[in-house]
Design a protein that fits this description.
Blueprint (H helix, E strand, L loop, with lengths): L19 H10 L2 H21 L10 H25 L9 H17 L8 H28 L1 H5 L3 H35 L3 H24 L4 H4 L11 H9 L2 H32 L7 H27 L1 H21 L4 H14 L1 H22 L4 H30 L5 E2 L5 E2 L5 H26 L8 H12 L1
Antiparallel strand pairs: 1-2
Helix pairs in contact: 1-7, 1-8, 2-7, 2-8, 2-11, 3-5, 3-16, 4-5, 4-8, 5-16, 7-12, 7-15, 11-16, 11-17, 12-13, 12-14, 12-15, 13-14, 13-15, 13-17, 15-18, 16-17
Amino acid sequence: MKLLEKKFFDSQIKTAEVKSAEKWLGYLIGPSGALLLNAVLATYLNVYYTDVLNLTSVWGGLFLMAFPIASKILDAITNLIMGYIIDRTKTKQGKARPWLLFSAPLILISGILLFTVPSGNQTVQVIWVMFSYNLFYSISYTIYNMSHNLMVPLSTRNTTDRGGLSVFNQISTIMMSGILVALIFPMVIMPMLGVDKSKWIFTMSLLSILAFPLIIMEYYFTKERVSEETSEDEKNEVSFAKQLKAILTDKYMLIIYGYFTIYTIGTCFKNLGLVYYCNYVLGTYNDGITQTLVSVLGGIPMGIGIFAVWPLAKKFGKRNVTLWGFVLYAIGGAICWVFPTNMVIVLVGQFIKNVGGLPCAYVFMALFADVLDHMEWKNDFRCDGIAMSIYNTIAVAGVGICTGLFNLMLAASGYIAPTLNEANQTVAVVQSSAVQSAITFAFVGLEVITAILLIGLLIFLNVEKEIEQKQKEIQARRA
């Protein structure tokens, strides 16, 4: 980290207050490349494995069930290690930002390797899939995602500025990534790709290359003001065990982790089921219309929410608007679950559901930052890296377990992958009612259940009540 002391690596953000360049370049445009790549992988990597590589039947269907779960054990370990490292990284550039820079070339290389799986020998394919998957998720994206997610909590203590940065940060995920993944991909790109492996490799390589300069931009246009509060000559280092105890004995942090676990399970199954649901339940295979309509009608509220959600959160509280949002979320999901093959009703349900999901999408990281400040007030030391490592461990473990269970559901219900005919055209069969029921539950059913659970959990998350006073006390201690 010695190199990061040189001026060449200094942040381009010099002001004590958050300005527009930081919002637009550091939190909106900068993260969009890596987040876009990750969003595409979350929706389509499993499709590549099942439909292009035809790995559904490997080991009697157990490979695509067991390998994601096993891989996430390693991912969970590297997340904890990365959290430990971040908390003990001390440079003029901060403790999380330097790792953004380090992750850029890793994301580029591992993103390409995910899709350049050799043809022919199935054993070689299986080994390549396991290696590339873990290189991307357990190492490259872990380093990026840990440091990226800490930018909002470490950016400033000003709750208004921090909330604004949280909104800008989520626009990258929801709007920029969503436009491509939810609209352009199903309407234009997926019908073009079909199950042609060479086209998949070309397209995904472009996305991996795009992420590289944008991560560099994120590094240069972010600033860790909270980290800078700690004087350079401060030598006392809090032990890992003490940090971990503080996290696991704090009720607000445990509620946040419980909330995120439940939310992750529902979201993972929804993301995995989206393409299959539109291809086999609501529409026909890669028709270029069904998934686009579902995404457009469901996604319109996300665009409106940019302007509405933060004013509502400031007036009524981040926790309160999120809680009532999940009431709408459950109602919209239930409508889709009852009428899963009716296009009009499903679109209405998706619209209601996504209106309810606005607060969760845009203000969660600001709520998480409040909990981190509460813990600093309570313990007189920060636990950013370890707290985020547990947060990310829940995310990656959830993705692995949900992916494995989803693939097991497909295999057990009798899913049949599409094939290429002699004219090099994709041919897909009509799936059985058992397969369609499994897909429908994954896409719309499970989230009704998780939304109800989240409503009950959020009732107890009242960390906002005294956070501003606690922040003043922290700053007084520092002074």
